[in-house]
Structure formats: structure tokens, C-alpha cells
Write a structure and sequence with these properties.
Largest sheet: 7 strands, mixed
CATH architecture of the largest domain: Alpha-Beta Complex
Shape: elongated
CATH topology of the largest domain: Nucleoside Triphosphate Pyrophosphohydrolase
Number of strands: 10
Distance between the termini: 121 Å
Number of domains: 2
CATH class of the largest domain: Alpha Beta
Length: 239
Amino acid sequence: MAGDVRGDPPSGRRPARARRSAAAGSRTARRRASRNQRRPGAAVARLGERHLEALGFLCANGVSIHADPPPAVIAYCSSCGSETEIRVVARQSLSVCPSCERIFFRNPKVVVTALIEDDGRVLLVLRDIEPGRGLWGLPGGYVDWNEHPEAALARECLEETGAIVEPQDLLGVQHVVVGDEGIVILAYRARLTGGELEARDEVQQIGWFAPDALPPLAFPSHRRILQGWSEQVVARGAA
């Protein structure tokens, strides 16, 4: 019977079932490709390609810029959710949202350190975290986004050493680059007003040190601060 004939389809055409299966497979492939395009990894890869293209254009035209990529490519805008793109803004290669024009700047973080002196000695902490675990340094830490630097200094000293301090004069400002992160360091002289001194958060030990008996230090920035302090102590002694 004609209805039971199983043979080749007419020339140039596939059976309807095969056509439907092929169409479904094509739609699945398109959906999978679309999902891959929406994944952050794919977006980051595309941003990286555009970043390199922008750098190549600038270098070819004699423009000198900092060639490091952003520390973490911002794939999607945190304000509107749109996918970002790499643009050159003020000679920096930055993630920018093309929808709301938000620019994701590479801003440095702010760190405070305290120089607490007593009878010609300075209070130092033996660090229990990286970087610098097992080495000594000044008490201090990062400033929170909604915090005044002097409030951060008092908080960090209390958390690390139990010391209640009163921030006094600003000794100096330093800028350092660690890996792909910029850090602004504010060094304050602080007066000890109370508290019970003991090793607390992120600290193995605390100790008082004279200028001529400083232990191995974790950071060059702390070394510079203490060098200036040592010179002042020596000058006071000679006066």
C-alpha cells in the first residue's frame, strides 16, 4: 500500500521529521551560543580583545599610556546592568558603560598607619596576615568607604593592639603600587590615651622598639616613616 512505502524521499528534499529535527538542533545551537555570549567570561574575553585593540591604536599613534589592563575587567555596569566596553579616558584604558556612560575608574585604596611613641620607643606589631606575615610593621589598615581617615586610624589601633589613641599630626603621604593595585598611605602620629595593650586581630605580637633596635619590617613605606622618626629621636637626644 502506498501509505506503507518506506523509501528515499523525492530528490532534493528530506523527510518532514528530519527537517524538524534539524531546525530544532539549529535553534538549540543558537540558544547555546547566545548563552555563551552572555556569560561573564565571554564578555571579559571580548573586553580584553577591545582593550588590546585600543592599546595598539594608541601605541601606533605615538601615545604613551600605562599599558597594564584594569585590575578586574568590569564586564557589566553595576548601575544599569549593560555590558561595558573598553575606552581610553584621560590616557587610561577603562571599562565604560555605553548605555549610561558610567566610567569605572582605577581609584587607589587608602591605608592609614599610626606612629605611637612612648619614651623614645615606637609601638610595632608582628603581622599575622599576608602580605608581610611574620614581619613587623606599624599598626594600621584600610579606610572604609564611609570612614574618616582619623577614625579609621583609631579603629585599626584598637582592633590590632587594644590601644586607644588620639590621632595628631599627619606625618606624610606616600603612594605605592602593589601588583595591579594603587595604595595611598597616610601616616599619622598618634598619642596613646588608654586601653590594654595586647596582640589582637591579625597580629601575633606587639612590642616597643628603640630607633637603634628596629626588627625586620614588612614594608618599605613603614621603613621610610620609621627612618624619619629615628632621625627625630636622635636629634632630640643630641639637643
